[in-house]
Amino acid sequence: MWVNKAYILTVCLLLLTQAGYAQNTAIPDPNFEQALIDLGLDVAPINGLVPTANLINVTNLNVSGKSISNLTGIEAFANLTVLNCADNLLSNLNVSQNTKLTQLFCSNNQLPAIHVSNLIDLNIFWCANNQITTLDVAQNTKLISLVCDTNQLTVLDVSKNINLNVLVCENNWLSTINITKNTKLNRFQAGNNLLTNLDISKNAELVFLTCENNLLSFLDTASNSMLVNLDCSFNALTELGLSQNQKLTTLDCSNNQLCKLNVKNGNNNNAVFNFSNNVNLNCVVVDNTTNTPTSWMPTGFSNYVTLQDQCTYFVNIDTLQNVITNSYYTLPVLTFGNYYTQTGGKGTPLFANDVITTSQTIYIYNTSVCATNESNFSVLITPEAYYIPKYFTPNNDGKHDVWKVEDFNNSIKTIAIFNRYGKLLKQLPANSPGWNGSFNGKLLENNDYWYLITLTTGETLKGHFTLKR
């Protein structure tokens, strides 16, 4: 039988060529290939191909910081368990075929997404400082360390990752995160998010916690007896009780709205605490008021107590004297508080320079996140030319402390005050500041007293009033 030898030779060459290609893996990124050359997995020159046999048995590959933008060819590393491709220029990373991976480090790239659902043996996964918007780690139940900070995550579900020891998710857009299933968590960093609530009651092994720069108004650390380091600064916390955290040595709770702070944990001598910029915090509960570290901030703070009951809250409030007039009254400008027609900041708001033309009680109300304060004064508008009080209460409370006749038209010449037996106790000139209820330096008893007012016309007015202490 006739055989075309040339044809047979061509077919053989083609088969040999295909076999040769099958023994190589395409590596289109020259920086990736150069990294493999540096590791001894390829030889120069760079040609876009690396012998597959050199890659298939590699278990640990570190190509970090090599300016790699394309990691195509990584699928040939069939037995890879550790991959470090951090600090590169990757915008895509497909490790779906590297199913033996236990550790993956791809931080500091440009990844918008990464899929790791096939990597069921993954126990360390660091993908920080990328552009990742969604991250599914539900299948990675062996994870002990997840570092995904500085991305664009709005949701992170770690409820299936019950073996997590380290979780770093700070610098994202998370408004909530549930770590109640992560009972082995030792280190949790969630600062610079949008968290309004954080339940750490199930994280008894927690040692290091940072949740700064969120929107937290409540944080309960009573169950975290192992806690050593806590940063909860720049939140909206009003109370923080740390007496159960006996190992706590580092605390930053500055820039909150704290009314109460209890750091009496038996370990103050070894602690570095910062509670600066809590404007409503007027005292702090500590171990020993005479031996508090001078390094604590704010420097110079001295109002330390050993019991919370020894703290008092303060809210500044303006106080105004009662007003009696026969025309009108203009409300003055306040420094602390606002005007209202009813107690408790209720009723109709009034404002500085409002003109009061009817008799009434006006309330000045001020509030802080810790407490409220209120004062009040009365405005009495009378059509008479003068006003004679029916009583006074000289107890130095700022209200009715003196008996004073208001003379609106300068129609009064003198005022004489007598006791019930007609004894003259006090003679007051016109426009006198009033009588304080004393005689010869002695305080007089509660009783009725009499007055005799002589007008400029020569007319006289008689009557009585009551002294009440």
Write up what this structure looks like.
- The chain is mainly beta.
- Among the domains are: 84 residues, no CATH class; 59 residues, no CATH class; 81 residues, Immunoglobulin-like.
- The protein is built from two helices and 33 strands.
- The strands form nine sheets. It has an eleven-stranded parallel sheet, with no helix packed on it. Strands 18-24-23-20-21 form a five-stranded mixed sheet, with no helix packed on it. A five-stranded mixed sheet has the order 26-33-32-28-29, with no helix packed on it.
- The longest helix has 18 residues.
- The termini are far apart.
- The N terminus is likely disordered.
Label this structure with key terms.
single chain, 469 residues, mainly beta, Immunoglobulin-like, eleven-stranded parallel β-sheet, five-stranded mixed β-sheet, elongated
The number of helical runs is 2
Largest sheet: number of strands, sense, barrel closure: 11 strands, parallel
Any idea what the shape is?
elongated
- State the share of residues found in helices, binned by percent: under 10%
**Distance between the amino and carboxyl termini:** 139 Å
Tell me the total number of β-strands.
33
**Strand arrangement, major sheet:** 3-4-5-6-7-8-9-10-11-13-15
Ranges with pLDDT <50 over ≥5 residues? 1-21
Average pLDDT number: 93
Task: Give a quick summary of the entry.
It contains 2 helices and 33 strands.
Lay out the secondary structure:
Elements (H helix, E strand, L loop, with lengths): L4 H18 L1 E3 L3 H9 L10 E3 L8 E3 L19 E3 L18 E3 L18 E3 L18 E3 L18 E3 L18 E3 L18 E3 L18 E3 L7 E3 L8 E3 L7 E3 L9 E3 L9 E2 L18 E2 L17 E3 L3 E2 L7 E5 L3 E5 L4 E2 L3 E8 L4 E10 L4 E2 L3 E2 L13 E2 L4 E7 L5 E6 L8 E2 L2 E2 L3 E9 L4 E8 L2
